[in-house]
Amino acid sequence: MTVPKPGPPPRPADPLEAVEQAVAALDGLADRPLAEHVEAYERLHAALSEALAAGSSGGA
Questions:
Q1: Is 31 exposed, middle or buried, given 0-12, 13-18 or 19+ CB atoms closer than 10 A?
Q2: DSSP tag of 57
Q3: Degrees (nearest 5) of the Cα angle 27, 52, 16?
Q4: What are the tens digits of pLDDT across the range 7-53?
Q5: Tell me, what's the pLDDT at 19?
Q6: Which of 46, 14, 40, 13 shows the shortest CA–CA distance to 27?
Q7: Alpha helices in 1-60 (DSSP H)
Q8: How far apart are alpha carbons 32 and 28 in whole angstroms?
Q9: Which of 4, 14, 48, 51 could form an SS bridge with 18, CB 3.0 to 4.6 Å?
Q10: Separation of CA 42 from chain center
Protein backbone atom coordinates (compact mmCIF):
# COMPACT_ATOMS: atom_id res chain seq x y z
CA MET A 1 0.00 0.00 0.00
CA THR A 2 1.34 3.43 -0.93
CA VAL A 3 0.84 6.36 1.41
CA PRO A 4 0.51 9.68 -0.42
CA LYS A 5 3.04 12.31 0.64
CA PRO A 6 1.71 15.77 1.35
CA GLY A 7 2.96 18.38 -1.04
CA PRO A 8 2.93 22.12 -1.03
CA PRO A 9 -0.48 23.74 -1.07
CA PRO A 10 -1.70 24.70 -4.52
CA ARG A 11 -0.48 28.09 -5.60
CA PRO A 12 -3.35 30.54 -6.00
CA ALA A 13 -3.91 31.77 -9.52
CA ASP A 14 -2.64 35.25 -10.24
CA PRO A 15 -5.77 37.37 -10.87
CA LEU A 16 -3.86 39.74 -13.16
CA GLU A 17 -2.64 36.85 -15.28
CA ALA A 18 -6.19 35.51 -15.50
CA VAL A 19 -7.41 38.94 -16.68
CA GLU A 20 -4.68 39.12 -19.33
CA GLN A 21 -5.56 35.65 -20.61
CA ALA A 22 -9.27 36.42 -20.66
CA VAL A 23 -8.78 39.63 -22.62
CA ALA A 24 -6.31 37.93 -24.99
CA ALA A 25 -9.04 35.42 -25.84
CA LEU A 26 -10.82 38.29 -27.62
CA ASP A 27 -7.96 38.65 -30.11
CA GLY A 28 -9.32 38.07 -33.58
CA LEU A 29 -12.93 38.27 -32.44
CA ALA A 30 -13.72 40.81 -35.15
CA ASP A 31 -12.80 38.21 -37.77
CA ARG A 32 -15.05 35.53 -36.28
CA PRO A 33 -18.76 35.17 -37.03
CA LEU A 34 -21.01 37.51 -35.10
CA ALA A 35 -22.86 34.52 -33.64
CA GLU A 36 -19.68 33.62 -31.67
CA HIS A 37 -19.35 37.04 -30.05
CA VAL A 38 -21.93 36.54 -27.30
CA GLU A 39 -20.31 33.33 -26.09
CA ALA A 40 -16.86 34.96 -26.18
CA TYR A 41 -18.06 37.90 -24.09
CA GLU A 42 -19.84 35.57 -21.66
CA ARG A 43 -16.58 33.64 -21.15
CA LEU A 44 -14.74 36.94 -20.65
CA HIS A 45 -17.30 38.10 -18.10
CA ALA A 46 -17.05 34.83 -16.17
CA ALA A 47 -13.23 34.95 -16.17
CA LEU A 48 -13.18 38.57 -15.02
CA SER A 49 -15.70 37.83 -12.27
CA GLU A 50 -13.54 34.93 -11.03
CA ALA A 51 -10.40 37.08 -11.12
CA LEU A 52 -12.16 39.83 -9.19
CA ALA A 53 -13.35 37.36 -6.57
CA ALA A 54 -9.86 35.84 -6.29
CA GLY A 55 -8.29 39.25 -5.94
CA SER A 56 -10.69 40.40 -3.27
CA SER A 57 -10.26 37.20 -1.25
CA GLY A 58 -6.52 37.87 -0.90
CA GLY A 59 -7.17 40.48 1.77
CA ALA A 60 -5.28 43.73 2.02
A1: exposed
A2: T
A3: 55
A4: 765 555 678 888 898 899 999 999 999 999 999 999 999 989 988 88
A5: 87
A6: 40
A7: 15-24, 37-56
A8: 7
A9: 51
A10: 12
